[in-house]
Amino acid sequence: MNICTTFSGKIFMGIMVWCLPLLAYSQAGSAAWPVKSKTFLQGFEVKVSGETLDFLPGLSNGQVALLIRATDGSSTLEFQSSVVPHDYREEFISFVWSAAISRRLQEPPGSFGLYINEEKRFTFFSHKDSLSANWTIKSGNSDLSFVSTEITKDSQDAFGYMFLNIPASSVKKGERISIKVIGGKQNSMDWYMPFGIPVTNEQNVLAEPALVRTNAGLKQRVRVELRHAGSPLPVQFILDGKQVHSSTLKPGKRVFYLLHEPVTARKNVTLETKLGGKTKDVRDVTLKPVRKFEVYFLPHSHVDIGFTHKQDDVEKLQWRNFELGIDLAEKTQNYPDGSRFKWNAEITWAIEGYLKNATEDKKQKFIDAVKKGWIGLDALYASQLTGLQREEEMINNQRYAGILRDTYGFDINTAMISDVPGYSWGMVESLTQSGVKYFSSGPNHMPHLPHGGYQVGHTFEAWGDVPFYWTSASGKQKVLFWMTSHGYSWFHNWSVDVLSKSGGDPIVKFLDELDQQKYPYDIVQLRYTIGNDNGPPDETMPDFIREWNETYAYPKMRIATNREMMEDFEKRYGQQLPVYSGDFTPYWEDGAASSALETGINRKSADALTQAETLTVMLDAKENSLAEFDDAWRNVVLFSEHTWGANISKSQPDSEFTKSLWSVKQGFALNGEQQSSKLIDDAIKTITAAENDPSAFQVINTSSWTRTDLVTLPANIKMEGKIIVDAAGKTIDSQRLSDGSIVFIARDVPAMSSKSYFIKKGKPKTIQARRDNDSSTLSNGSITVSLNEETGDIKSIQWKNGTNLVDEKDTLGFNAYWYGGLVKSNLRKQTGATFKTIEDGNLVKRIQVASSAPGAEGLTREIQLVNGLDRIYLNNVVDKKRVLEDENVRFTFPFNIAGSQIRIDIPWGTVRPELDQLKGANKNFYSVQRWVDISNEKIGVTLVPVEAPLLEIGDMNGQKWMTDMKVRPWIKKYEPSNRLFSWVMNNAWFVNYKAYQDGKIPFHYVLQPHESFDEVAAKKFGIEQTQPLLITPVDKKAQPVTPPLTLKDDTSIIITSIKKSRDGKAVMIRFFNPSGKTAATEISWGKIKPAQIYISSPREERGAAAGNSVSLDPHEIKTIRVETP
Amino acid sequence: MKALLLCAFVLSSAHLRGMDVHPYSITHVRADLHDNRIVMTIRTNAEDLLYFHKLPFDSLLRISSQNLVASARAHASVIESAFFILNQDGIRMPSSVTSSDFSSLEKSESIDAMFLLKYPLVYTLEFVMDKATEILNFHQHLGTAGTPAVSFLTISRNANTLVTDVELSRDKPFTMIRDAISINATDRQSFMVSYITLSDTRVVHELTIPSEILQSFLSIDGASEQSSEAIRKFISENSTVRINDIDLHPQITALVLGTESSPQRYNSSAAHIRIEYSLEALPKKVAISWDNFNWKMRWFKSLIDAFGQRREHNFSRFQPTLTIERDLRLDKK
């Protein structure tokens, strides 16, 4: 997302050029430097009011530009001059400031009224063309002039100086004058923009790390930037005693390059500058030996699937980019090495559509381009919010890369991610398992912000230009991770702009900075995207780089694919790279809480798909096609892609553009849900008996361990005078719930198998009794939960008669609803509590508390216990009102567990805040995969926030960085706490994410008290909450499902995925050891009759032969390919 | 106008033991340009007198005000010789000290040597500028006493400030055209000045951090006790020193926080901080670290006096630690 371009109208700055004054619309031509006094005063020294821009090129820290348009006559800006001296004696006083005026976009021209100390004095207009961009207008004894020093190439906007000459008698000495400009009522986008940049004579010198090729051999370059505020003058430079350059200096900025013999050691030389034949500056310049930098530019588009355009249009734009890139590569194929064009596809999403839709010719051209190295392929399907993803969803980020490999033989070993700052630690395992060795990161980059980007936290500070090997939680895998400190968007037109406009200066300055910082490598990564997000290839780039390399021996510039750069870099520096391990806790996942309902749906769909894949193997469900799975995974992965909606989603939430983008985005979640449900249903159908009044059921366990849980039969099952029995005839307690459904506990359902239950005549043990005398306490004999009768918050949880696990002293309340504005402003919680006992049977006890809730039509919280299960089920439903003002919703969980350690579940690992986080990781909020655990050595609780991924610890810290927008104080050091916050909703992002959400949105939490922490138990518990036991009616004679395989009961190894191979010839099984100890197990084959077993990976290759045992180190994963006859 | 807030000092006895260690002198210089003269106001503090004039102090580390005033007067010649302006031909413009203000020293009989930084000394120098002068080349050579010195130069013409707080040091003179109407020194306050002094008894790290940079790290609101405390915490968390592989705890022995009150384009104030680390053993291996950078300050240069040897180090993410090892041997002769 390119946040800087969300104001419409392109504003460019570039190399200043002088334009001759000519006639303009009602504005007479001016002289070159039209000041009437001997000296002039700064026209814009203090900003007063107006739309402020602080990110434009040319603005230093603290400097701003103001912007108005000629729309409805209300667009106003105001600034003040410097102080008029007390002893000012001249007749006229001249004020000068930098300004820009747009070219006329329509007729009549945009008009701008200029007021001095509230008195209207002038009206000026946007210019028709470059010939009318210099003018003077008079008003009595005063005049106003504009002298253009640059006309932008494409838009013809004029940049230059504004001059105001007024009689000195008309201003008060010792005071500033106020200059106000009001845009006219032309309903036009024509604009005027004054800059709070001093109008100065200034000279900046940089001894560049550059060696120039000349006829006299290599020379070292000194860059001199002169700002000249005055009439044209001859300029001469004397470097080290020799005159090296002379020309004419015109008003504005001008850059000169002076040459010196290369030095082999530091050397101080003198630079003398003469203006008009007189010495104006003498200074020492230190020349250093030039480092042999090689800058690898990675051209790509930055694919936002939405944001700038509708998703379908983005896809077509990207297809066009492929074709433009190929054409450019073809055109430049005979250029010198380094300047031949290459295009990085960045992600595979658009490729999938292209290869499906392109003509055969184009398709072949694309394939050939990849083979020739013109198009670089990277493995991720999109730039993901990885903190939202489940393990197998993450693996599916590389799904289409695998298809490209299998179909075309493209072996993709790189990944690129753009815009998004911070990535789940699980990405290391996910990428490396899929054959990716190199991971390039280009986060959002806004150089005017204190951390160098929007909501990037400490990412750039920690890892910008600090390549390292990032090892997985198992320590078995590593990926070369390299984040460029200029992100992906440095060459956008609001920043330094394309190389052919900005020249090499920004690059050389950057290299000088790297040198100053003692950057230890000579290879430098720069992402190269132009224009805006979803931008095209730059057709001027190859020529620029060819000419650069012809001119300069160093730094060398090279157009490259990600793969070329990474392989070159590793070859040269791999041995000396540092190695780090930990979670790079991401920063943008908070936006997913702007659509809490769909986020919850998608998280469940990811687990449902994993379950569907297992079922498909368990039940040999041939109807479930690979294409269906691919499409479902595609939808799930696309919902986790970082582009949520429009660049105007917050400012114009009801615009057609915003609604259209959200409709497609929401569709990814809803379609994924529908498809995953269908795949499960279709698999189960293979054993389902279609009877009206079924009397036999199978409870199916898709996990690799034996499970016990509550299962639910639909309401249409007739149970009057009947009981449920197991296969041994043992009566099973059941209960009909208030909605008519029937529940019972299925105990010890075997791994990846099923257990039979029957309905037969008999006297039910207990009839569900629904009570109206509502209680505020419920117990299942093991756990007792008491509620505060006034608030409905949980005031105590006692497990096995132990101490209260709730911190009663914490005034937040446990399972309390908190609503507030930005950061923690105007915090309010729910009010009132009406209790109702919903279930009070022999199995299930459930109390519902209804409350009023700010920001919502209402809030219901249901607290449920099940006899025989040591769990507390919470179901909080927020009936959300549409609110456009900034808002946040949280549920609070203050625990009473002394000396606790918090652990957070992530894909393929567990994160202890601070201890398992990389430097620069997010500590304001965390992304939870399935559970968070808080425990000490004796007791703890595992909390599963089923739908809501965002967790804050200690306080509502998620937006704490907004408390000081100068500093943006992202938390650096984690402070241990027993307070957990489930941050379920927000809408604070000013672009991209949703501006509001409404309707009933459920948030389920499951809490399991336990003794000391057991990582394996926690992992299993988390999976059980989103991959439930399934139940289906079957024929009375149906036997339990034969498991495809079983593991030893006592092993800590679990299976996280079992699915059919893409070629249909094998079953792919992924094992994971969640424990901190090495574990081993024997495999007992069931339904699967292996012919061959291979060590494999998500790539499904035939690796080394494997046997019937698995041994895994802590947190290691291993995939085997089991081929059947 | 700058309002200077002198914040509380915490000086340890180690500081007293280490009086021999030179800190660095910070001076604020304001040059007002007139038609035929330049009036330069130089504001330094009484601590300079200690180092430039080797003032004696009593057993309670107090110095008599009389001695201080006398040496402040004598210091006028140091100021006069150390601050000068050359013209385009390299000729020194005639100058003289026209006034001085030592009133801060006259309120008590003696002053604790530890608190000399709180006592400002103000000197006014006038330079005669003839009509032929075209270039003004400002110099500061205060380092002659062996004390690293930096001045912050502000130049104004009438009520308008031309340049604010540019670094002026022996190595860094400042040049401008005499009739310049405006100068935009891009180095303005965008640098962090860092001097590190290593001796056998202590490590001193002196920093001048522009508010603009400081405020990109810290939420501070002008000169207040809260700001001071935030700065103390910031420094103690980020300026770490290990001697012979043992971590030392920093003590902030001086904190001067300036604020800018006029509505200029920039906040040009700066914080001056002195951090001391007391040693309990002869330093053989010294490791000084700073590893807190952001986009506004991606690195900074430190000038180091390491046991009498001058060196430089750029602290950055790539080299957050400077390690100096000494081979301490008895001279067998």
Strand content of chain A: 25-35%
Order of secondary-structure elements of chain B: EHEEHEHEEEEEEEEEEHHEEEEEEEE
Q: Please tally the β strands of chain A and state the result.
A: 64
Number of helices of chain B: 5
Largest sheet of chain B: 7 strands, mixed
Structural class of chain A: alpha+beta
| Mean pLDDT across all amino acids of chain B | 77
Q: What general form of chain B does the structure show?
A: globular
Q: Which strand order does the major sheet of chain A show?
A: 44-45-46-47-56-53-52-49-50
Q: Which residues of chain A form runs of ≥5 with pLDDT under 50? A: 5-29
Could you tell me which chain pair has the largest interface and how many residues each side has? A-B, 54 and 42 residues
Oligomer: heterodimer
**How much strand of chain B?**
35-45%
Task: Identify the notable features of this structure and list them briefly.
heterodimer, A: 1125 residues, alpha+beta, eight-stranded mixed sheet, 64 strands, B: 333 residues, six-stranded mixed sheet
Can you describe this structure?
The complex is a heterodimer of chains A (1125) and B (333). With 1125 residues, chain A is α+β, with helices and mostly antiparallel strands. Helix content of chain A is 17%, strand content 35%. In chain A, strands 44-45-46-47-56-53-52-49-50 form a 9-stranded antiparallel beta sheet. In chain A, strands 1, 3, 4, 6, 9, 10, 11 and 13 form an 8-stranded mixed beta sheet that branches. In chain A, helix 1 (311-331) packs across helix 2, helix 12 runs antiparallel to helix 13 and helix 12 (596-618) runs parallel beside helix 14 (656-685). The N and C termini of chain B lie far apart (59 Å). Chain B is built from 5 helices and 22 strands. Chain B is an alpha+beta fold and 333 residues long. In chain B, the strands form 5 sheets. In chain B, strands 1-17-18-14-13-20-21 form a 7-stranded mixed beta sheet. A 6-stranded mixed beta sheet of chain B has the order 6-8-3-2-10-11, covered by helices on one side.
